[in-house]
Design a protein that fits this description.
Blueprint (H helix, E strand, L loop, with lengths): L19 H4 L5 E4 L3 H6 L3 H15 L15 E5 L9 E5 L10 E4 L17 E2 L5 H14 L17 H4 L4 H4 L6 E5 L4 E5 L6 E4 L15 H4 L18 H12 L4 E3 L1 H4 L5 H9 L1 H6 L3 E5 L20 E2 L2 E4 L2 E6 L2 H6 L2 H4 L2 H8 L2 E6 L2 E6 L3 E3 L18 H6 L5 H12 L15 H11 L3 E2 L2 E2 L3 H4 L2 E3 L7 E2 L11 E2 L2 E3 L10 E5 L5 E3 L5 E3 L43 E15 L10 E8 L2 E10 L14 E11 L3 E11 L2 E11 L12 E7 L1
Parallel strand pairs: 8-9, 8-10, 10-14
Antiparallel strand pairs: 1-2, 2-3, 3-4, 4-13, 5-11, 6-7, 6-9, 12-13, 14-15, 15-16, 17-18, 19-22, 20-21, 23-29, 24-25, 24-26, 26-27, 26-29, 26-32, 27-28, 28-31, 29-30, 30-31
Pfam families: HET
Protein name: Heterokaryon incompatibility protein-domain-containing protein
InterPro entries: HET
């Protein structure tokens, strides 16, 4: 039998000691492999792995690096704590801080030069189907050994083995708001109702791209018939998308009986049931035994590669670079998820965030993550389960769900969530409903259009994030809320404590909302956010008889947005000219100066970050522009105001930006001068 001759290492790679024990002595090390052109043309087996690593790195970057052939020098680094299980790995160094995008070069399990165990090393081969027995063992070990961290957060007293506490509880106790829970019975191939909570799995997947079959009032009786959802029945009126069919097969193969899928377990044409289901969806995912994350495709027909025979190709994972030394590429879960369609969707955000165990189907492999460990089917299981690596969502977002600092954690969550995409813009609040309910409880505050009322002043101070993309108007929601704008936002997040020489202390606005019927709802101030003695700044001249909402009858010509309440309040309005920066990048992108006229001269007296400036002609109109004062900012040497830029139409205003105005500019306002007025803000 003819064997393939192993190519020798090149003179550069021959200097690298391919022995994990030797490499791990003394920490990280780097080697210069010469020019990219040399590496690309080399027949050296390690150079070829490096070239493949560079190519794969470019595939996962929004701004790909230089082609390998154009790189002056190529450096490879040994990261002693890199790779699966932190056993160490080689990493192509690009100078990029986004380390997660780099595939690592790891040792394979057949490497014989290492006297230590092969735990977390790459397997030699990946089959065309997943190993159900291996996945079942992961679930059993987690349930048996991990205790409270991997138990549902909704449990009152989680302990080791506490999964049993979730089961056999009444649904209305485990998931307040629901009297029963519909589930797909994967053994009987039909939909069943439950008032006692059984062990079940959930599916987190991407809608769209296919005619998605749904539960309706008209087919509910039929879908409860025995065998109606048999997955081998690929024809007929009850044909399911491939992802759902394969999820049913997977759950059955794991020995579970029940699966929850939103499209089939909530009546999609019953608005009341749908709203209740959306409101408690966080608890549905949190109480599930396992969440299956279909993250390898673009729609509901992408499937779960590896569940069915030959649904993915067999792969060799390693190659021999020296006798007894095998190496291969390993991709972190984060690098595979970061640019997936799955990770960009708003609906899957809380599903992934709240699930205590997730089985990810990502390109090329299956990965299991719980709150203690992360395991990949491409790696040898560690004999000892150490602390889990949060290689999914950003650690700050994962920590935020515990709400130890609820205000800060809500900001962190919203700043991540607003960067995600929605197929239907009207779902901006619905896709966050469960998380917002939890934050409402943690803050002890109502939430109005996504903003907590107890610290309402602060949460109005959002602007576009620093990614160079302008916010665009989402008309289904009010302009005063982050939900009223498409695009990532950031919050100023001030506090009553000094932060970098700045604090907010003065508030004078009594907030209220006015619904389409004219009914007024006044916010109840939180006792944890008392108004301080310096509430009213010197230049805010208040007419104390005009601080509460006035009687107001909308005429037939007035455009009252029927889908959300107006914000109703009194404050001081001023008028100034603006000078818009024309830079297309950097800190000044989307920012305008507020200009104070002093005789024939003008000077800057503030700035405003403009909303929707790329899509609105409002900013091209001649001034002056109207600003309203929101709160006072006390700095070390000066006092300023947070201001909101307004655009009016038929007696109702919309927000067009948030900015800062110097205190002494107020008295120089253009006509009609500083005026105390009532604002109706949509």
């Amino acid at each position: 039998m003819q064997t393939t001759r192993m190519e020798p290492l090149c003179e550069y790679c021959a200097k690298i000691p391919f022995n994990p024990h030797v490499l791990n002595q003394g920490g990280s090390k780097s080697w210069d492999l010469g020019s990219g052109l040399r590496v690309k043309g080399s027949r050296c087996p390690f150079c070829q792995l490096v070239a493949l690593s560079v190519f794969e790195y470019g595939r996962y970057k929004a701004d790909p690096p230089l082609p390998l052939s154009e790189m002056q020098r190529v450096f490879i680094t040994w990261d002693a704590r890199g790779g699966q299980g932190r056993r160490g790995a080689f990493v192509f160094w690009s100078g990029d801080e986004d380390d997660d995008a780099h595939p690592t070069i790891c040792f394979g399990q057949d490497t014989t030069v290492d006297s230590e165990s092969a735990d977390c090393y790459l397997k030699s081969f990946l089959g065309s189907t997943i190993d159900l027995e291996m996945i079942s063992s992961w679930l059993t070990q987690c349930s048996t050994n991990h205790g409270s961290r991997c138990a549902a957060l909704t449990l009152s007293t989680p302990t080791a083995g506490s999964d049993s506490k979730t089961q056999h509880r009444l649904v209305k106790e485990a998931i307040p708001g629901l009297d029963h829970l519909r589930l797909i019975n994967v053994q009987e191939n039909r939909i069943t109702k439950h008032i006692v909570l059984p062990r079940y799995a959930t599916l987190s997947y991407i809608w769209g791209g296919t005619a998605n079959f749904r539960l309706t009032k008209g087919n509910e009786a039929a879908l409860s018939s025995y065998g109606i959802l048999r997955t081998e029945n690929s024809s007929g009126s009850f044909k399911l998308p491939r992802t759902i069919r394969e999820a049913i097969e997977l759950v059955r193969g794991l020995g579970l009986h029940y699966l929850w899928v939103d499209a089939l377990c909530l009546v999609q044409n019953d608005p009341r049931e749908l709203q209740v289901g959306v409101d408690v969806m966080d608890r549905i995912y949190e109480c599930s035994w396992l969440t299956i994350a279909a993250a390898s495709g673009h729609d509901a027909n992408a499937g779960l590669p590896g569940v069915r025979q030959d649904s993915r190709r067999e792969r060799k994972l390693c190659r021999e670079v020296l006798p007894g030394v095998r190496l291969g590429l390993e991709y972190s879960l984060n690098s595979l998820l970061k640019h997936s369609v799955y990770r960009t969707r708003a609906w899957t955000f809380q599903e992934e965030l709240l699930s205590r165990r997730v089985l990810y189907f990502v390109p090329g492999k299956v990965v299991f993550r719980c709150r203690e460990v992360q395991l990949s089917e491409t790696c040898v299981e560690p004999g000892h389960k150490g602390p889990g690596m949060q290689d999914g969502l950003a650690i700050s977002v994962m920590d935020a769900i515990h709400m130890r600092e609820p205000t800060k954690d809500f900001v962190t969550t919203l700043e991540h969530y607003t960067r995600l995409s929605l197929s239907h813009q009207g779902d901006a609040l619905r896709a966050m409903a469960g998380l917002m309910r939890r934050f409402s409880e943690a803050l002890g505050s109502q939430i109005v259009q996504g903003l907590p009322t107890s610290i309402f002043d602060w949460f109005l101070l959002f602007t576009g994030s620093d990614d160079g993309i302008s916010l665009s108007r989402r008309p289904e929601f009010p302009s005063y809320s982050w939900a009223g704008w498409r695009g990532g936002v950031k919050f100023q997040f001030p506090s009553n404590r000094l932060l970098g020489g700045e604090t907010i202390r003065s508030r004078w606005i009594d907030w209220s909302t006015r619904d389409p019927t004219g009914e007024i709802h006044i916010f109840t101030p939180s006792s944890s956010h008392p108004v301080d003695p310096f509430r009213i700044p010197d230049h805010v001249i208040i007419n104390e008889s005009n601080t509460k909402p006035s009687a107001y009858v909308f005429s037939s010509q007035t455009k009252f947005p029927r889908s959300y309440p107006l914000l109703n309040f009194w404050t001081l309005a001023v008028h100034f000219e603006m000078s818009i920066y024309r830079s297309l990048e950097g800190w000044s992108y989307g920012r305008a100066e507020i200009v104070l006229q002093e005789g024939t001269n003008s000077r800057r007296c503030g700035f405003v970050d403009m909303d929707g400036f790329e899509e609105m002609d409002f900013f091209e109109r001649p001034g002056p522009f109207e600003f309203i004062l929101l709160s006072t900012v006390y700095k070390v040497w000066t006092v300023e105001y947070h201001v909101m830029l307004l655009e009016w139409s038929d007696g109702i205003a919309e927000r067009r930006g948030i900015g800062i105005l110097e205190q002494d500019a107020i008295q120089h306002s253009l006509g009609p001068g500083p005026v105390w007025k009532e604002i109706l803000l949509a």
